[in-house]
Amino acid sequence: MAEITLEDIIKPENRVYVKTELMTDNVLSYCPGCGHGTAHRIVMEVIEELGMEENTIGVAPVGCSVLAYEFMNIDMQQAAHGRAPAVATAIKRVWPNKIVFTYQGDGDLAAIGTNETIHACNRGENIVIIFINNGIYGMTGGQMAPTTIPGMISSTSPYGRDVKTMGNPLKITELVAQLPGTHFVTRHAVHTPRFVRRAKKAIKMAFENQRDGKPGVSFVEIVSNCNSGWKMTPNDSNKWMEENMFPFFPLGDIKVDGKLI
Amino acid sequence: MSELKLMKGNEALAEAAIRAGADAYFGYPITPQSEVIEYLMAEKPFERTGMVVLQAESEIAAINMVYGAAGAGKKVMTSSSSPGVSLKLEGISYIAGAELPCVYANVVRGGPGLGTIQPSQADYFQSTKGGGHGDYRQIVLAPASVQEMSDFVRDGFDLAFKYRIPVLILSDGVIGQMMEKVKLFEPIPRLTEEEIKEKYPWATTGKKHGTERRIITSLYLDSNEMEQHNIKLQKKYKEISEKEVRFELIDCEDAEYVFVAYGSSARIAQKAVRLARAKGLKVGLFRLITLFPFPTKQIQEMCSKGMKGFLAVEMSAGQMVEDVHLAVKGCAKVEHYGRYGGIVHTPEEVLEAMEQKIIGG
User: Fold this and answer.
1) Is residue A208 part of a domain?
2) Is the pTM of this model over 0.90?
3) Whether A86 and B94 lie within 8 Å, measured CB to CB
4) Considering the domain boundaries, does residue A5 fall inside one?
5) Structural domain for A146, as ranges
6) Count of structural domains within chain A
């Protein structure tokens, strides 16, 4: 009997998983254990599955995912810090036949860019916003974010966030859900396969909403970890996220088809 | 078709945007330029040509909307006045860094801070020396009439797309608010999707399967790449400096002394030239049209032909005069005259300054 070689095994029909062509082969700049890579992948898988590759323009933020355009293999623009919703507003307004989305972290979307986020959502721009919330400024080295939860340690709240002096964390997803211009607002996670599948389903619905001309923003928050910024191992950070972040940022749909749940 | 109309400078600018085939205008109200967006909203170009007009939530959002639309290959414009332009400068730096074409107007008012709503030319440094962060330049056109408020929108878009650079129309409260007759240029049709894809292959219009993706960014984390990008930008600015200088000479053939001025100060200085000639003084006017590129060579040539003195007239404490100094290099007398903080000088004041500081000085 002839020996079975690697070439015999690696055949298209034997593959159980294929990386989407809409992710480049560039080595991810994210820390091992970070949720960004998974979030990137499922966004790109959705665009591929919906046949939107040739029609989609993405907007990258400032923050850890500033280099999203190195990994997302579609036309991309990199926006100034916090301004992605304004950039996306314009792209969609001048190209109403294209699909436009932003991919933003919590510092970008909920601190410096709060104004652009709220007004794009309130105007009801027909765009998708993917919001990665890891409760910290990852890129600059773990400073307090607008979403750092009470008592949480960061490099600018080294004794824990004291809401009396540092203010309260901002639940911007609940906030934008109140605005008449949002159509679909939902919160997910990507730390286990079960949650990845749910998040992907939500992202797919968000892009379908835009494709089908459902009026308004489709807003998908992904609560994620930052094992480096939180100074934990990847596994510990996911456990900490489940025990501390999820109670504060409960997962699930907040608004569907323009109606609050 | 071209037609003759009586219009405010700000209205002419707005009408010119529609006629230039602009795809979008994103703005935010501020005195003394609010007529731009008011005119556009009343005129409804979205029905006339399909042009998008949107009132943004801030000047910051407006300029970042310009970034997005420009990056998507569209002809896009915004306008503001001094404090609002300060807010836009981060966006302008990004637009310059990402090499995107756009036109924006600053109808300058007095500063610093909230200042006054009266006219000023105190944003010269901001306009010509950068303003935002980083080693960038922008083309600066200085209209001196309502006619030029219209014409420079069309010319500005041509330059912006030729060099992929932001073009600033540096107006002021006088030119923006005054009414004059203006001959409107023939409307230029907006480009179709196919034309945009063919003319601007760098624009993000959706990546065809199997082709390279387009990326609009100003980020170069590798400092060697960042330096190369800067070298490329500087090469472009040098080319612009050599090819795109624009100016106008008035009564300079036999002049021994000249005013150097732009915008409404040039109009005032032009009147002062007439007053000087009536007194038998050989005075002319060098009117700057492009502030960047600055006509350094042309001013130097005047010096070498024996011009005795230059009076820089500007509604500021003396900004443009520094570039005149750099051009003259000590070969002739250079002085500055200007009222500022919202006060507009008179032709008589300007002539008196010429007589005292340059001719008699």
Assistant:
1) yes
2) yes
3) no
4) no
5) 29-260
6) 1
Distance in Å from the first CA to the final CA of chain B = 52
pLDDT tens readout for residues B104-121: 999 999 999 999 999 999
- Please answer yes or no on whether A83 and B219 come within 8 Å at the CB atom: no
pLDDT tens for A45-102 read 999 999 999 999 999 999 999 999 999 999 999 999 999 999 999 999 999 999 999 9
**A60: chain B residues, CB-CB within 8 Å:** 217
- List of residues 6+ apart from B140 with CB closer than 8 A: B127, B128, B167, B168, B170, B290, B291, B292
Tell me the two tokens of residue B289.
Answer: 């049209």
Min Cα–Cα distance to chain A from B209, Å: 6
Q: Which residues contact A235 (CB under 8 A, 6 or more apart)?
A: A33
C-alpha–C-alpha distance, residues B124 and B260, integer Å: 14
CA neighbor of B149 nearest in space, from B124, B128, B170, B165 = B170
Whether A7 is in a domain gets the answer no
* R_g of chain A computed on alpha carbons: 19
- Residue B268 half-sphere exposure, CB side, CA atoms within 13 Å? 26
Task: Compare all CA atoms of chain A with the CA of B221 and give the residue at the minimum distance.
Answer: A67
Q: Do B72 and A57 touch (CB under 8 A)?
A: yes
ipTM of the complex: 0.96
User: Tokens 């290959």 correspond to what residue?
Assistant: B73
Interchain CB distance below 8 Å, A94 and B205: no
Residue B159: how many CB atoms within 10 A of its CB?
19
Q: Supply B207's token pair.
A: 């990546």
Judged by a CB distance cut-off of 8 A, whether residue A26 touches chain B is no
Coil, helix or strand at residue B6: strand
Domain at A235, CATH number = 3.40.50.970
- Which domains are assigned to chain B? 3-193 (3.40.50.970), 247-359 (3.40.50.920)
The pLDDT score that the predictor gives to residue B91 is 98
